[in-house]
Amino acid sequence: MSSDGSYERDRAYIGTRITADGRDGYPVEPGRYRLIIARACPWANRSAIVRRLMGLEGVLSMGIAGPLHDERSWLFHLDPGGRDPVLGIEGLREAFLRREPGYSRGVTVPAIVDVPTGRVVTNDFEQVTLDLGSEWAAHQRDGAPELYPERWRDEIDDVAGAIYRDVNNGVYQCGFAGSQRAYDAAYRRLWERLDWLEARLEGRRYLVGDTVTEADVRLFPTLVRFDAVYHGHFKCNRQKLTELPALWAYARDLFQTPGFGDTIDFAQIKAHYYVVHDAINPTGVVPLGPDPSGWLTPHGREELGGRPFGDGTPPGPPPPSERVPPLGSAAIEG
After folding, report:
1. What is d(CA 199, CA 177) in angstroms, rounded to the nearest whole number?
2. Catalytic site residue 41?
3. PROSITE patterns under this entry (predicted)?
């Protein structure tokens, strides 16, 4: 928190990369690493989506932390015995401490852990998705889409940068604001950017070009959480997503695209925000709404053209162990 009450995200991540040539000491190797996510977390949601789109399930295993973590760590409270079945740890903090004894920064997801040593390799969420789409190319499925095509990279970077600043992080700046002035400023930036996105998407199916790109992967996790969490819990309440015609149709289009909606668990999302953020919601009461069934209604975006996977193909269904509950399921064991 800054002196004026503005929320400032700590971005001091472990920046080691897993690359095809292993230049940071961690070469791409099937079965060596484990991606740790939480269904609740929008930053981790990006990695889960890209892993699905690239078809890396068979070479990069995925552990899923539960939504009800404490102030120290994401916890594996949904797994039998409360331990990740591959790493054998109760909390993700253990893997950070193995990498850096005395580690004092944020224990965040997504994180990729080196299974043989149990050490975190990286938690740099922006670089992780880019590397899954490029450095892991030798192990991607046939038909994997190109999410960061060279001809569109400058525009993707510009659009994604604005989305991060004003929307992805903007909702947190509203929700965690410590003063009225800081909240008002964040709220105005958020809605100016959402209005800009609404106008941009009125006549085009995707944010950049005519296929799904990194820009779409980065916007979707915030949109899918908007009405369930950010609208009320974070006071981002000028309008609901369902009241923004282009953005609501765009979000439904992506939700119904394989690799996007099949990573979403609304029960875990709501449990995390409404229970863990006890300074904002001290009662810990989790709302029953909104009704998620609207995510499966027709969106009509096909009329704008474009092909979600370009010359590629949709991913197959997720592995049985990674399937999310049907819309409307709400049980969370803590």
Report:
1. 28
2. yes
3. GST_CTER
Structural domain contains residue 202: yes
Q: Per the residue annotation, which of 7, 26, 33, 41 is the catalytic one?
A: 41
281-324, pLDDT tens digit by residue? 999 999 999 999 999 999 999 999 999 999 999 999 999 999 99
| pTM flag (> 0.90) | yes
Distance CA 263, CA 265 (A): 7
Active-site annotation holds for 172: yes
Count of domains in the chain?
A: 1
Active-site annotation holder among 172, 187, 206, 274: 172
CATH of the domain at 248: 1.20.1050.10
Q: CA-to-CA distance for 275 and 332, rounded, in angstroms?
A: 11
- Burial class of residue 90, CB neighbours in 10 A (0-12, 13-18, 19+): middle
Ranges of beta strands (E only) in the chain are: 33-38, 61-65, 111-114, 119-122
Is residue 115 assigned to a domain? Answer: no
Give the position of tokens 């709400």. 330
Q: How many CA atoms lie within 13 A of 43 on its CB side?
A: 19
Q: Does some domain include residue 305?
A: yes
Going by DSSP bridges, is the β-strand pair 119-122/61-65 parallel, antiparallel, or unpaired? unpaired
Strand-by-strand arrangement of the 111-114 sheet: 61-65, 33-38, 111-114, 119-122
- Which domain, by its residues, includes 315? 150-256+289-322
Instruction: Give the angle subtended at the CA of 150 by the CAs of 149 and 154, to the nearest 5°.
Output: 105
Is 183 exposed, middle or buried, given 0-12, 13-18 or 19+ CB atoms closer than 10 A?
A: buried
The DSSP string of 76-129 is -TTSGGGS-TTT--SBTHHHHHHHSTT--S---SSEEEETTTTEEEE--HHHHH
Does a structural domain hold residue 309?
A: yes
User: Any idea which residue has 């690239």 for tokens?
Assistant: 54
For 81-118, the pLDDT digits (tens) are 999 999 999 999 999 999 999 999 989 999 999 999 99
Tens digit of each residue's pLDDT (9 = 90 or more) over 178-194: 999 999 999 999 999 99
Determine how many CB atoms are found less than 10 A away from the CB of residue 151.
8
